[in-house]
Sequence to fold (454 residues):
Amino acid sequence: MRKIKQLTFDDLVNIGTKERKDLGEVKMKVKEIKGLYDLPGSWRWVKLGDIVEVLGGGTPSKSKREYWGGNIPWVSPKDMEQFYIYDSKEHITPLGLKESSTKLIPENSILIVFRSSILLKKLPVAINRVPVAINQDLKALIPKSFVYPIFLGLYLLAIQGYILERCRKKGVTVQSLEYEKFVDIPVPLPFKNNKPDLEEQKRIVAKIEELFSKIDRIRELRRQAKEEAENLLKVALHHVFSRADKKGWRWVRFGEILYDKPQYGLTARSTKEIKSYRYLRISDIDENGDLRNDDPRYLELEENVAQKYLLHENDVLIARSGSVGRVYIHRIDNKINQKVVFASYLIRFPIDREKVEPKFFFYYGLSPFYWKQVKDTLKTVAQPNINAQQYQNFKIPLPFKNNKPDLEEQKRIAAYLDKIAEKQRKLLELYKQTERKLEMMKQAILSKAFRGEL
Fold:
């Protein structure tokens, strides 16, 4: 019996290269179609399906170990985070490639996520810089020889909103694109001597990458500034509370600074529909103790029940489960303009304001000295919970004067930390605004590029 030669990865790469060359030999003439906007005279609109070959993917059987752990990158939607792909999280063997529906995609093809929940938000597009296999949720576009892959990839990124609006299937559980609508997408190409101008495409891509590189350098500087801003309050908190012993402050148990017993929150069903009371949950409080308003919940309550759990200005809450230790101080301001009750995994600590300024207590709850007590306590319990009794054994350093807690000093420190926190918030908001502007600049560059204006 004649022995069948086992294909190697290099053999498969050569096969992919040959297919790419054969594709490049097709006739360069393409039909002009109606486009999305006006183009310069030397440009034309062409149909995507006329300038690429579309290949699908597949998954080798997971039950066959000999198909997995090889040297062929197997790309799935989770690998589509960068524009250029050099590797993947999972790899298959030449045997896995041969005996499955996946295919070897030549390098410098365009990979598109065709089926995934990510399509609700964006359209991932990438260029594979090495030969890869793809799973069934992706499509690979192999451009004809007169189309520069990066040019086409960047164009598809630039119009991803249009693609999703036009091609995303309606009324389906798993988001996906309609193939027929996708391949009908108009693509703008520069022409010269009645043929697609490959060199002009390359020039445009080089200009885009030059401008993007400048934006990315600005973005990196802003990222470094953001990291410094994020540390502003942390540094200030450490500065304040690390000097407690040196300043002669006294460490006092939480239980000694309360005028009443801690109170657990309300267990109730809530809804996204706006009702009479906002229902404050642990997930509504971020790591800085600020209120989140991205997913608020509400409920209706009898007046006598609501009064028991109603939050007042400067009430202090601490999470007993979930995000254990997280501290929140209630403020009645523009962020939340209705009555609020608190949920069962939160504990209200009635701070005696003749002993402790609530804002001072709150900032201590953000400090590393408080969080060390949280971590130390969690090491001693079977479940990741801290109850009210355990919290009452925590200690807080307090400035004293004339043998009494110095409220004026606490208020001064809280005001100082308020200023630092506000400065930090403004800097981080400025960073977000800058990020949005830089992203808009990239979109403007792409828009000009594919209108023949770059």
About this structure: The longest strand covers residues 68-75. Residues 9-195 form a domain with the Adenine-n6-DNA-methyltransferase TaqI; Chain A, domain 2 fold (CATH 3.90.220.20). The radius of gyration is 30 Å. Residues 1-7, 15-27 have pLDDT under 50 and may be disordered.
